Amino acid sequence: MPIETTKNIWHNGQLIPWEKANIHVMSHVVHYGSSVFEGIRCYTQPGGAGIFRLNEHMQRLIHSAKIYRMPLPYSLEQLNAAVIDVVEANGVAPCYVRPIAFRGYGEIGVNPLKSPVEVYVANFPWGKYMPGNAGADVCVSSWSRLAPNTMPSLAKAGANYMNSQLIRMEAEVNGYAEGIALDTNGYLSEGSGENLFVIRGGTIYTAPLANSVLNGITRDSILVLARQMGIPVVEQAMPREMLYICDEAFFTGTAAEVTHLRSVDRIMVGDGTMGPITTALHKAFFNIVNGLAEDRYNWLTPVTVRETAAV
Ligand SMILES: Cc1ncc(COP(=O)(O)O)c(C=O)c1O
Questions:
Q1: Which one, of 171, 86, 160, 103, lies nearest residue 137 by Cα?
Q2: Which residues lie below 8 Å from residue 291, measured CB to CB, with a gap of 6+?
Q3: Residue 210 backbone dihedrals phi, psi, to 5 degrees
């Protein structure tokens, strides 16, 4: 989907015009994929707007950078403030926020250590990533997720998304909304950009971090909500066929939010509609982000925006 531009982008401590946020073709990141990034949603609530789990997202960015020995010249507090600054300066909500840190123009060669670290934060209006409440028809991908001793999946690194692109493109050319990848041992891992939940006999299952998944912040939010609702939750390795015999299944992610799966490999999940547990979690999640229920976990950081976009 085309990017809707906004006015400013935060770069290394300053707001610069959107069209000036350019990099050189010989920047390290262009050749070797040396970036770490985040994707955050800012939601509107009656009378205001709030950024969803800002602190956790920026903490994950810091951890992603640490894994890749990329020193970020900003503290967690400064990075949080940068996001708030750019969202307030651009004045658009709801929106999607994209902080990114990468190795810029310095040296050529695989070793990134002598190339400077650049940090940018952009935001722009962005609507639904997955089809509405009709559910997604997905497939199991022929591509595996990253093996644990190749690329660290707990780092949200640009290079990981070459694997995601293969999964996503294969799904699309075969007529599916998304692909679910197995890990290199054949256990269920995650979608190209979403964590996966399966419900069977009243228990919620999701893959543990050891199955090559990103430590999703929406995944964590759903685990919190489910435990608070008293629904049993198990993080365990799952065989592929759990998808064919489960009662309900859904994806979570900043982009996908909470999206139920209607079918997997053309096999209907339950009766294809959003099942009762997914519905309860979906409602609890959206009630908080849309300001219809108390933000009891302090997940929303308030921001002052003038305009609200119809997304
Ligand atoms: C590969 C992958 N898994 C899971 C997720 C979900 O993570 P989150 O809920 O933090 O957006 C994402 C999205 O960022 C992702 O790209």
A1: 171
A2: 43, 44, 45, 46, 47, 48, 50, 300
A3: -70, -10
Q: Whose CA is nearest to atom 1 of ligand 1?
A: 193
- 187: Cβ–Cβ under 8 A, 6 or more apart, which residues? 207, 211, 237, 238, 239, 240
Tokens coding 233: 């939750």
Q: Say how many Å lie between the CA of residue 107 and the centre of ligand 1.
A: 31
Separation of alpha carbons 278 and 258, rounded Å? 8
Q: Is domain 136-289 classified as CATH 2.40.50.140?
A: no
Domain chopping of the chain, boundaries: 8-124, 136-289
Q: Which residues pair with 188 in a beta bridge?
A: 182
- What does the block give as tokens for 121? 């934060």
Mean pLDDT of 78-82: 98
300, 84 Cβ separation under 8 angstroms: no
- List helix spans (H) across 182-289: 217-228, 242-245, 276-289
pLDDT at 191: 98
Q: Quote the tokens at residue 242.
A: 């759990």
Structure token pair of residue 285: 């999640």
For the whole prediction, is pTM greater than 0.90? yes
Distance 194 CA to ligand 1 centre (A): 5
Is residue 7 among the annotated active site residues?
A: no
Q: 120: which strand partners?
A: 11, 100
**In this predicted structure, what is the pLDDT of residue 128?**
64
∠ Cα 142 144 149 (to 5°):
160
Q: 8-124, what's its fold?
A: D-amino Acid Aminotransferase; Chain A, domain 1 (3.30.470)
* Secondary structure (3-state) at 269: coil
Identical fold for domains 8-124 and 136-289, yes or no, is: no
